[in-house]
Amino acid sequence: MARKPHQYRFSVGPWNFSEGQDPYGPPTRPAQPFDWKLEQVKRMGFDAMMFHDDDAVPDLDEKKDAQIRREARELKKRLDDAGLFAEIVAPRLWFSPKTIDGAYTSNDPKCRRYAIERSLRCIDIARALGCKLIVLWLAREGTYVRESKDASRCVDYLVQAIDKMLAHDKSIRIAIEPKPNEPMDVAYIPTIGHALAVAQLCSDPKRVGALIETAHCILAGLDPADEIDFACRFGKLWSIHLNDQNGLKFDQDKPFGSVNLRSAFDQVRALERHRYGSRGECVAFDVHPFRTTKVEHWSKHLENSRRTFLHLVEKARSFDEAAAKELIKDRNYADLDQMVLEHLMGV
Fold first, then answer.
1. DSSP class per residue in 161-212
2. How many helices (H) and strands (E) does the chain have?
3. What tens digit of pLDDT does each residue of 126-178 get?
4. How many CB atoms lie within 10 A of CB 117?
5. How far apart are CA 23 and CA 126, in angstroms?
6. CA distance 81 to 76
7. Catalytic site residues?
8. CA-CA-CA-CA torsion sign (106, 57, 159, 214)
């Protein structure tokens, strides 16, 4: 008996409502408070929100633990009232002056200690929000001058930090989000393969997995669908950020499928193949509005990304797999190639 297709749940972060500022120009849209963003997410019918720790509790470095827990509980109530839940919480370890030379891999032991303490506070915030998935974007874990650090020792530092996080709360899982080109010149954990290798060194490897942001696979010269297959083969893809990227340029966060629709189809087909989402995982769109977007069109990039994704889910589910297998058996890859194109074109 064939399994019924599962339904997806969708997540978005407050940072996905960007104001249009880039390194070469000021904002093009006015800043909006969190409540406005929360209302947009509710209006669009998304299921969950993603948070950095200081999205959930602003200025948390200046607050006592009791105040942090109180504000996190207040946010949990606002999410409950909006019919939303917190999918992930991530420590923001790339803004502080203490992380200029790295967070977990800083050459300064005091800075490494700060990064770990901040991460444990992040876990406390996640607990108050009812969230068990902590995401680590290892933004400053690398170097601009290779001779300034020992990469092997830095892997040890990363493992030590993750182990302390795992020990702090036995119910959490940690998903490493690799980004090869952002923002360090040399990133120590640039790909999913690196992330899963580090997981095996940790005290509880079953609780350390990965989050894929698909545009960053492109920035590494890799295929996002292959990376999805790779992580899923290990049972380690615990969240995904879908977006698109116009080649090996700056991080663009374009709407999903807006550059390469066939690649987007292959990504969705890989997710379907592994029944991603059937165990409660969310699909998140780490997309930003174009800098030229008007205020009245502010949320279109999120709505459009979800529409494209759902159209491609139908394309993946209606793809004639039996016919494809026959072409593969005959090594008739030319007709397989055309079959995919015509299927996407609706021919």
1. HHHHHHHH-TT-EEEEE--TTSS-SEESS-SHHHHHHHHHHSS-GGGEEEEE
2. 12, 10
3. 999 999 999 999 999 999 999 999 999 999 999 999 999 999 999 999 999 99
4. 13
5. 32
6. 9
7. 52, 55
8. negative
CA distance 166 to 205: 10
Helix pair 333-345, 261-273: axis angle to 10 deg = 100
Give residue-wise pLDDT tens across range 216-270.
999 889 999 999 999 999 999 999 999 999 988 888 899 999 999 999 999 999 9
Range of the domain at 236: 9-319
Cβ-in-10-Å burial (0-12, 13-18, 19+) of 30 comes to: exposed
Q: Is residue 239 part of a domain?
A: yes
Tokens of 246: 């116009």
How far is residue 303's CA from residue 295's CA, in Å, rounded to a whole number?
Answer: 15
CATH code assigned at 155: 3.20.20.150
Instruction: Measure the CA–CA gap between 319 and 342, rounded to whole angstroms.
Output: 11
* pLDDT at 3 (0 to 100): 64
Cβ–Cβ < 8 Å for 214, 267: yes
Residue 335 lies in a domain: no
145: amino acid identity, one letter: V
DSSP three-state, residue 139: coil
Q: How many domains does the chain divide into?
A: 1
Q: Within 13 Å and on the Cβ side, how many CA atoms surround 292?
A: 1
Q: CA–CA separation, 36 vs 144, rounded Å?
A: 38
* Any domain includes 340: no
Main-chain dihedrals φ then ψ at residue 174, nearest 5 degrees: -120, 125
Tokens standing for residue 299: 């949320």
Answer yes or no: are the C-beta atoms of 164 and 120 closer than 8 Å.
yes
Residue 163 lies in a domain: yes
